[in-house]
Write a structure and sequence with these properties.
By secondary structure, this protein is mainly alpha-helical. It has helices at about 1-25, 35-65, 80-110, 115-150, 160-190. Helix content is about 75%, strand content about 0%. The model has no long low-confidence stretch (mean pLDDT about 80).
Length: about 200
Amino acid sequence: MMDSFFSLVMGLAILGVVLYAVFRPKEKSEGHGGKDAYFYIVMFLALMPLFWGVADLGRLGLEGVWDIRSSYTYGQRSAEDQARRISLRMSAIVVALPVYVFHWYKAGSRKKEEMDWGSKRSYMVAVLILSLILVLTVGIWLVYQGFNALLGAVSRDVKQQVAYALPYAVVSAAVWGWHMKGWQELKKQEGVKPTS
């Protein structure tokens, strides 16, 4: 269920960012409007496998530490299967991280008067909203499981569910925090006082 939720949210977010970047009204005060939209769209797209790789690597780590058998392995887990799972997540990180960093650097290397403020704002807002949705959704679910444990209503596969949700909550919060810091810096660069 969580996989289908993440897929739906990611798909809608991608569609929303692309449509907004293409069809948003250009403001004269934005500077070079739309010029860097490519960089921010690629960063957004690279952030998804990067996010998944880091969070799911955390899930695999927790499953290993807590000796949890995933439901999709039917109780059988070989060292080779585990190595392949880890290898896939590491591959996603190794490929997506340089793409993300390169495009972040290229988009941010312009002079203040040449900066495409509108595309940068669109990117920041999309990532902040999406990561906040994930933090709230997974955070609420984790607190719900905590209350269930306090009240003695724990399901038998709660460790597996927590191993899945906890890394996604932590990585979502980290992504939100890093982009919130970037949002505040963006507001300073634009000459607007940050709201928080």
